[in-house]
Amino acid sequence: MTIVASPERRSRKQKPLVSESSPLLPEKHQDGEDCVHEGFNGASFSGAVFNLSTTVVGAGIMALPATMKVLGLVLGILLIIFVGLLTDASIDILLRFSRAGAAASYGGVMGDAFGRIGKMLLQICVIINNLGILIVYMIIIGDVLSGTSSNGLHHAGILEEWFGFHWWNGRVQILLLTTVLILAPLVSFKKVDSLKFTSALSVALAVVFVVITAGIAIVKLFSGTIQMPRLLPDIVDHTSFLKLFTVVPVIVTAYICHYNVHSIYNELEDPSEMQPIVRTSLALCSIVYITTSFFGFLLFGDQTMDDILANFDTNLGVPYSAVLNDIVRVTYVVHLMLVFPLIFFALRLNLDGLIFPAKKHLVLDNKRFILITAGLIGIVFLGASFIPSIWDAFQFTGATAAVCIGFIFPASIALRDTNGISTKKDIYLSLFMIFLAVVSSSIAIFSDINSMFKKN
């Protein structure tokens, strides 16, 4: 899955940049020469920004208002900004060490630094992280379309509200239809840039969700029907203190996009634009996250659910409340459906690379491509049918695989420094990222286990 690229990477128009082992699923002529996709001269700046932003802004946005319920608005917003800055730093490390080692995939950088074992560890973490995220997507789709129950309360789904309860709009049936009719066709694309238009639409739908949520909250705030929520966390004992750390994996997971950075980078017409693309995407996503967290928590307060979409099934106290509820839920479900193939893209490539490291590239073997795709879709479907809460899935993937992909692995690459390019700043920053990731994740896992035993 690793390419050995020329160190002089300027423009795709000047020289093809991919080879048979590239993670971008290139076509290959029979004479053995590498080539880019026919008629494809490289991805544009805007297309790359949309694809990377879509990778970032997925289901994580739905759980962020619930983190404000734990941290309060001040600490919550500061933590979102802080994790965004750390994400930018870790991606910068990945790109710089990729160029130095002539590696054009995340796995290639890990392989250069730690050999086959390092590459396998990354692949396993990407598989765990992306499987968890895709299961979360499907859980949310099921919650919105067919309804969900929490703490003895049933939140009706859109189809249940529109048509009443029938056998065909049950959770399993709806997820099966969504998988077969929508998700399966979308995950059949073999090139990231093929998804640039769906990515642009998904970002637009996320913005629609944010604008409507903010508008409702502002109207209710000026009408005096809601009050400003807590600014700081409510700490009464050591248990409530430990609970603060459980939100870290959720926010970390919301920013993980590292597994698609190289795929987008390798398809760029001008690879020198990658750093501005990353910063533009992260800035856009941070604004969306902060706005959603603030207005979502302002709107629902301590009644904010782990999946805030489930809150949009009641009278919001504003004109056309029912219509706005449906618009919010439908737009974000469509957004998740459009994000799904981008996350699936990296999942499929890493699973194939882990199981069949010596086989020819996945794009050249249609049978293997179809079998892996169908198997992964089936696993995601089963996971969404049996895992009850997105918070549980986010905490597990965030405290394990996500922190490794986002911080521990990039920091370890800089500390290993096989190409001798690490600065003192890189070393100090890497040590800080590893310390922060290990400590926060360990406390979060301990807090979750402690809460589980108390419930039992």
Structural commentary:
By secondary structure, the chain is an all-alpha fold. The chain has a domain at 45-97 and 132-236 and 251-256 and 264-389. 68% of the residues lie in helices and 1% in strands. The chain contains 15 helices and 2 strands. It has helices at 45-56, 60-71, 73-100, 106-146, 158-163, 171-186, 196-222, 238-243, 247-255, 258-266, 274-300, 321-355, 366-386, 390-416, 424-455, and strands spanning 148-150, 153-155. A two-stranded antiparallel sheet has the order 1-2. A hairpin with a 2-residue loop joins β1 (148-150) and β2. α4 runs antiparallel to α12, α4 packs antiparallel against α14 (390-416) and α7 (196-222) packs antiparallel against α12 (321-355). The longest helix is centred in the N-terminal third of the chain and has 41 residues, at 106-146. The protein is globular and about 60 Å long.
Major sheet: arrangement of strands: 1-2
Helix content: 55-70%
Query: β content, as a range?
Result: under 5%
Count of discrete alpha- or pi-helical segments spanning 4 or more residues? 15
Structural class per helix/strand content? mainly alpha
Strands, count: 2
Give the CA-based shape: globular
The chain-level mean pLDDT equals 78
Q: How far is it from the N-terminal to the C-terminal residue, by CA?
A: 45 Å
Q: H/E element string?
A: HHHHEEHHHHHHHHHHH
Low-confidence stretches are 1-40
Biggest sheet architecture: 2 strands, antiparallel
